[in-house]
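Below is one such protein, fold included:
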Amino acid sequence: MKKKLGLTVYGIDGAKDALKEAKKRGVITKLGDVSKSLPYEDGYFDFVFAGEIIEHLLDTKSFLNEINRVLKPSGYLVITTPNLARVDDRIKFLFGKTPRHTTPIHPYLYLHIRPFTFDSLKKVLKLCGFDEIALRSHIVAIEFNNQKNCFYSRFLAKIFPTFGATLIVRARKI
């Protein structure tokens, strides 16, 4: 985004190594904890991207209220998060199996505190002062036992984004 659009890009993270890498790429970085107050003034940003973070936070409303605070009026937020209601998890649930995003023994997804469906994310976004909420997904994925036996479709993700593996949600600050 920085190179293609000529934007000034800011990043906040709790991992110093991630910040070092971002700084090499021209990002203005800050060490911080997004579960607390963001270290920016009110109305500072036109656009905020929160990728694969909201599912790790206990207090979703505080996080979204902070983003709302640092956005300019009519600013945009884009959030990405794994979809609790992806098509293969829906099928697993019907057969009494644990959806992958809620299993405590998954190699890394056990770190997800609060999984989302589009409906639950949309409701909390509205509650926190956002509208014009739009959904996309990049791929519908159906994994059978392991990742060697999979079905992936970008086409189905365009038609049925609520079945997609990842929720990509855009919302405008009211």
About this structure: The two ends are 25 Å apart (CA to CA). The mean pLDDT is 93. The chain has one domain: 33-173. The first helix runs from residue 2 to 5.
